[in-house]
Design a protein that fits this description.
Structural class: mainly alpha
Largest sheet: none
Shape: elongated
Order of helices and strands: HHHHHH
Helix content: 55-70%
Distance between the termini: 55 Å
Oligomer: single chain
Number of helices: 6
């Protein structure tokens, strides 16, 4: 049985007093349980991954050719826009934590979990995008487990992005099946 005699919140006078301290830290209060520097580093790596995905999907949208390419190009462009949205969400969270979002293209591929592989034809492009989405899914799952209850705001943001990445992977899988004729990836 829990003790219901304790108030849910800390003394409101104390909360008000603490809220006036360290205003330079913005939304980051003393109750933040995460490691801010590590969180910013991890989120900057996720940002780099999203930026590489924006570039790869955009490149694929331009390079896709063939009789069946128009619908695939449209899908690539939609995914590029959504990956850009993810990048901006991550950058905003980094800023909320007092960090600096790293948009510098120098070293982008070394910070990114995914690779930039062009693909020589439509099927290879789709395959590379599916592989990149699977990498993103696995890294987001790991990040979500890491943040768990230590940083619920970051965790929820990553869960939102993860759901979209899973949708992207499903889209790429469907396209791969449609254009390759079978659902299995050839490593």
């Amino acid at each position: 049985m829990s003790d219901n005699t304790q108030p849910f919140l800390t003394d409101i006078t104390e909360i008000r007093r603490r809220a006036r301290e360290h205003l330079d830290r913005g939304a980051l209060t003393q109750d933040y349980e995460g490691d801010v520097q590590l969180t910013v580093k991890v989120l900057n790596e996720a940002l780099a991954t999203e930026l590489v995905c924006v570039l790869r999907y955009s490149s694929h949208a331009v390079a896709a050719q063939g009789i069946n390419s128009e619908s695939v190009k449209a899908e690539f462009l939609e995914h590029a826009r959504e990956e850009n949205d993810h990048a901006m969400l991550l950058a905003e969270r980094i800023s909320q934590l007092g960090g600096e979002a790293n948009f510098n293209p120098e070293g982008l591929l070394t910070r990114s979990a995914s690779q930039f592989i062009q693909g020589r034809n439509l099927v290879e492009m789709i395959r590379e995008d599916l592989i990149a989405e699977r990498i993103a899914i696995q890294t987001y799952q790991e990040m979500i487990r890491y943040f768990a209850n230590h940083d619920p705001t970051t965790r929820r943001l990553l869960e939102e992005i993860l759901a979209k990445e899973e949708e992207h992977a499903n889209d790429m899988h469907d396209l791969l099946v449609a254009h390759q004729g079978h659902p299995m990836l050839n490593s």
